[in-house]
Amino acid sequence: MKGATVGETLHHNRVTTPLWRERINQPFTPISWDQAFELLVERIRATLAEQGPAGLAIYGSGQFLSEDYYMANKLLKGALGSNNFDANSRLCMSSAVAGYARSLGSDGPPCCYDDLDLADLVLLIGTNTAECHPVLFQRLIKRKRKQPDDLRLVVVDPRATATADAADLHLAIRPGTDLVLLHGIGHLLLEQQALDQAFIAEHTEGYDALEALWRQWTPQRVCDLCGIAEADLRQLAQWWQQASAVLSLWSMGVNQSREGTATVAGIINLHLTTAQIGRCGAGPFSLTGQPNAMGGREVGGLAQLLPGYRFVANPEDRVEVERHWGFPPGSIAPKPGLAVWEQIEAMERGDLGLWWVAATNPLVSMPWLDRVRAAAERCPLVVLSEAYACTETAAVAHLVLPAAQWSEKAGVMTNSERRVTLCSAFREPPGQARADWAIFAELGRRLGFVDQFSYGSSAEVFEELVRLTAGRVCDLSGLSHDLLGKHGPQQWPFPMGTAPGHGAARLYGDHRYPTPTGRARLLAEQPLGLAEPPCDNYPLVLTVGRYLGHWHTMTRTVHVARVLKQHPEPLLEVNPRDAQSHGLQDGAMAVVSSRRAVIQVRVQISERIRPGTVFLPMHWGASQPQPCEANRLMHEQADAISKQPELKAAAVRLAPLIT
Ligand SMILES: Nc1nc2c(c(=O)[nH]1)N[C@H]1C(S)=C(S)[C@@H](COP(=O)(O)OP(=O)(O)OC[C@H]3O[C@@H](n4cnc5c(=O)[nH]c(N)nc54)[C@H](O)[C@@H]3O)O[C@H]1N2
Ligand SMILES: Nc1nc2c(c(=O)[nH]1)N[C@H]1C(S)=C(S)[C@@H](COP(=O)(O)OP(=O)(O)OC[C@H]3O[C@@H](n4cnc5c(=O)[nH]c(N)nc54)[C@H](O)[C@@H]3O)O[C@H]1N2
Ligand SMILES: [Mo]
Question: What pLDDT is recorded for position 626?
């Protein structure tokens, strides 16, 4: 759907010139790029003088090209000394990043898409792959149709999604009980002596504590908490035991949880203890959502990271990056910067002089929107780099910069299987729109860092960034725009001198993990459950996700007739039991309240959602004719390690709308 309609998304409603207003209750006036840069230089200098580097923050996006990401990070972390660069990937895959790093010693999904053809058990947990990764899903389904007995699909999701429809087994667990379920599988595998003790002894550490933990998670206890039948749990454990290759796929149902990182470890524990990793068809495979969230990880696009899977807090990492960037020692601050919710809190305190939002629409996609809006309104300068006009975030911006988007600028993106693609420019940007990397580079030069920010093209930016990955887990040093253009997309690691087509299909074939001991870590963590569990006042769990046709906050898809026909409005999915007990009719309007806000939305009564749980799409923001603003209801509480907010669950109550 997205590929078929992308041509229709590129033209409508574009921002074509920089726009400025002193106060957000005034209309915007078009200004020149020169004026925009002068304004930025002046305000950045003033903020530095008053508040220091900590007063500056950028909130970027997995929709940046790697070159865009790299330039923004070099400017903020290197030239300006502030690590407050975070990205919407914080809301998306930061639990997967932290989970891989803790269990395996480094970020980096170890699997590849060919594994979809080679696995005989595929566990799809917290992912509606059919609607959100339809191309991968079609690959699985084609195989399932051809060889129904060679492939088992198990889906873990509180909703009966299109993905679940294709499954051999659907475990409709209670939201927030994934880790309990995973421990329950571990318990049964242990009991059935299905663990690979030789592999555990040779390649892992921490087994004893995990075994002790798994013993506590008896099937009955697990099934009571998860709300599933014991026979189903036993079936899954049996299939895991019988499978020669198990592939686990996950996305937001796992990551967007206050224990997302522990749940990722829970998945990896099962793969390690059964030696289902580092070989064909097997492994823990996180599906990234945005086109280039993976590239963002490689170039250090979160507040705690530096390029090449390096860390701000590591003194050697800082020295290497400072040298490569051409800044004096000590230029990069030693403490991780503010993650995006911390940026919101900083604005509430008046601690940010500049909040620069680029390629994301936080006034729809962040939790607790009323608080985000109020915080942004307190910030003296909100800058927005956007492709489209009049987004919800533009409503709180002072300066809007017109951005070139996909098809209008050249650069690379990396997908879930570590494959780097050159996206060529094949159209002119509209009006005065510019590539994000070029905007950050010009600002760098105008701030006086002429040597560090002079580039002839994005190919030169890429050349500089790949050198910084040499010898790292995510080694891209053999890649260039030229090579990618001639030979097509390539998987990393791709060290200097690698022949095209000879990047690594899989990681950890030798089972040497990049931890200090070379062993992977088994992590024994007790489940915490939801941060905001249902209670007498708010008895239902609201979960929020996606529709097949729409893309996020709809800035792209809002004018595509085919998509609108398919999904004309947001619908609240309610189980018939809950509808009855709340007096709700199918097709009537309901009032949904959480501790933070109240919204109105049309009801769709459906057996496909678990009793006790309701579902809303994330897409409809305040600027839509039928706003729904699901995220006004959501809370900000986050995983303590990854700082990823629990965007999949908030306690709500329902009532019919009385008109
Ligand atoms: N059509 C479309 N495709 C997209 C996008 C889009 O906007 N539209 N966005 C892209 C992006 S950035 C991302 S991150 C991906 C997201 O891809 P997905 O993660 O597949 O999408 P979601 O619908 O957010 O959530 C997946 C499922 O998690 C379930 N879930 C909720 N709570 C729980 C829980 O506690 N446990 C479990 N096991 N499951 C739970 C929901 O019911 C939902 O079906 O999609 C990408 N692809
Ligand atoms: N409750 C709940 N909330 C969620 C989620 C959920 O599942 N549940 N999912 C979360 C996840 S996983 C994600 S990824 C986020 C997504 O949320 P957002 O990032 O806010 O969503 P988008 O609509 O993709 O916003 C990207 C914006 O960048 C603009 N843009 C596109 N290309 C370019 C470019 O090249 N340069 C610039 N400067 N701008 C460009 C687009 O026009 C668009 O307005 O939402 C998060 N919020
Ligand atoms: Mo995402």
Answer: 86
User: What is the residue with the minimal CA distance to atom 22 of ligand 1?
Assistant: 545
Determine contact, residues 628/620, Cβ cutoff 8 Å. yes
Q: What does DSSP say about strands 19-20 and 29-30: parallel, antiparallel, or unpaired?
A: antiparallel
- Residues 608 and 92: their CA atoms lie apart, in Å, by 25
Where the chain has pLDDT below 50, the residues are none
Where exactly are the structural domains of the chain?
15-91+292-406+432-454, 94-287, 540-656
Cβ atoms 463, 475 nearer than 8 A: no
- Identify the CATH assignment for 540-656 out of 3.40.50.1010, 2.60.40.10, 2.40.40.20, 1.10.3210.10: 2.40.40.20
Q: Which of 165, 161, 150 is nearest to 116 (CA)?
A: 150
The C-alpha torsion from 166 through 169 and 173 to 176, rounded to 10°, is -70
d(CA 77, CA 327): 10
Which residue, by CA, sits nearest to atom 10 of ligand 1?
289
> Which residues share a beta bridge with 335?
none
Block residue for tokens 């696995």 = 119
| Residue located via tokens 């840069």 | 37
- Element spanning 384, H or E: strand 382-386
Residue type, 125: I
**Structure-block tokens of residue 494:** 């791709």
| Pocket perturbation via mutation, ligand 2, pick of 15, 88, 423, 556 by most ligand atoms within 8 A of CB | 88
pLDDT of the residue at 2:
84
CATH architecture of 15-91+292-406+432-454: 3-Layer(aba) Sandwich (3.40)
- The DSSP call for residue 632 is G
How crowded is residue 420: how many other Cβ atoms within 10 Å of its Cβ? 26
CA–CA distances in Å: residue 98 to residues 95, 101, 309, 328:
5, 5, 11, 30
432: DSSP letter: T
Cβ of 14 below 6 Å from ligand 2: no
Backbone dihedral region of 407: left (phi > 0), alpha (psi from -120 to 50 degrees) or beta? left
For a mutational test of ligand 1's pocket, the pick from 61, 642, 648, 652, i.e. the residue with the most ligand atoms closer than 8 A to its C-beta, is 648
Q: pLDDT at position 376, please?
A: 98
Q: How high is the pLDDT of residue 429?
A: 97
Residues with CB under 6 A from ligand 1: 92, 125-129, 131-132, 156-159, 161, 175-176, 178, 251-253, 289-290, 543, 545-546, 548, 550-552, 648
DSSP state of 79: I
Q: How far apart are CA 440 and CA 68, in angstroms?
A: 8
Half-sphere exposure of 158 (CA within 13 A, CB side): 29
Closest CA to 131 of 155, 112, 150: 155
Angle at 429 between CA 423 and CA 432, to 5 degrees: 140
Chain CA centroid to CA 629, Å: 20
**Distance (Å, whole) CA 185 – CA 625:** 46
Q: Contact, 364 vs 629, CB < 8 A?
A: yes
Residue 10, CB-side half-sphere exposure with 13 Å CA sphere: 17
How far, in Å, CA of 83 to CA of 61, rounded? 16
The pTM for the full model equals 0.97
CA 136 – ligand 1 centroid, Å: 14
Please, which residues bridge with residue 604 across strands?
573
The yes/no answer on whether domain 94-287 falls in CATH 3.40.228.10 is yes
Which residues fall within 8 angstroms of residue 360, CB to CB, at 6 or more apart? 59, 60, 61, 63, 87, 88, 393
pLDDT at 58: 98
What gap in Å lies between CA 97 and CA 416, rounded to an integer? 12
